[in-house]
Amino acid sequence: MQNAMGSDIIMQLDDVVSSTTPDPIRVEDAMLRSLRWLDRCIAAHKRPRDQALFGIVQGGLDPRMRQVCLREIKKRPLPGFAIGGVSGGEAKEDFWKTVELVSVGLPENKPRYLMGVGYPLDIVVCVALGCDMFDCVYPCRTARFGTALVREQGGVLRIKQTKYKLDLRPLDATCGCYTCRNYTRAFLHASFGKMPSVSQLLTIHNLFFMQSLCLDMQRAIAAGTFPAFVRSFLLQLFPPADRDRAEKRGGKAEATGEKSDGGCEQPSLEEHKSKGQRGLKAEAKPRECGTASPFHGANGECRNLSTPPSWVRDALRAAGIGIDDLYPAPEKD
């Protein structure tokens, strides 16, 4: 079927097991089965000259199984490789460590495709860990729920919030997409839910945002300034200077029912339940801000948007990018 479709890149058939499965035998069986299926895909591939068949590294969160799959898959004559079986609800510490383990073990001269990852923060961190390509429905699906991706505190803008009723600014003043050049936040707020085209306008913006983000990373890598780009990106999403102001306004926000500048702008619970990115747990019960997002804990509690999550600090440190001077590590008791 993929040969008939003519895709530039095609994927092997693999046996995908949830990253949170407690059965190691099932995970190992799936990994070995995926290797056997890869051999059958290679044998059946009819257009190797104009279609790149990627193999998929499986093995769950078990480093040993991942290493076995890595060793075997590199024996095959493949033009590229994918990392599968993550972003399925596992802890972020397990997520980034698995990505790093596989990424550093793959050939440097061939593309590395991380499957099912779409949050901008996750993508930036995983590029630092060595990944090149990504796919996810998140930018499009989150747009249908009225959420725009932005490079400012929190990383998202929920256009349904009443504070945008009279806001004549574009979604993102730094964005050059069709939506930001032609429509205001006030128009999008007033029209969302009434005009189906608003979801399309938000989708246009989010896709442009992701393309711009990836292009900026490409340019930074080519210029040798990627660590500086990562630090700048984090300062946009987690501005430390806003911490005191957010704390001072916290009481007012609680009294009026509005969120302060340091409040949460993350996707709604309805969007959370729709699983806009693989791994969002519909059964999670949000607290405080009533939302669920990559900036929230496992139970939905609102995290401090003035400091990146600890897993980001750990992953970037492993990639050789320090941020301790930007965000001092919390003191240990």
From TrEMBL:
Broadest EC class assigned to this enzyme: transferase
Bias type Basic and acidic residues, positions: 245-262, 269-288
Superkingdom, natural source: Eukaryota
Ranges where the record places region Disordered: 245-307
UniProt domain tRNA-guanine(15) transglycosylase-like: residue ranges: 1-236
The keyword Zinc belongs to this UniProt entry's keyword annotation: yes
Keyword hit for Transferase: yes
Keywords associated with the record: Glycosyltransferase, Transferase, Zinc
Biological-process GO terms, alphabetical: tRNA modification
Annotated GO MF terms: tRNA-guanosine(34) queuine transglycosylase activity
Matching PANTHER family: QUEUINE TRNA-RIBOSYLTRANSFERASE CATALYTIC SUBUNIT 1
Protein name: Queuine trna-ribosyltransferase domain-containing protein
Annotated organism of origin: Toxoplasma gondii RUB
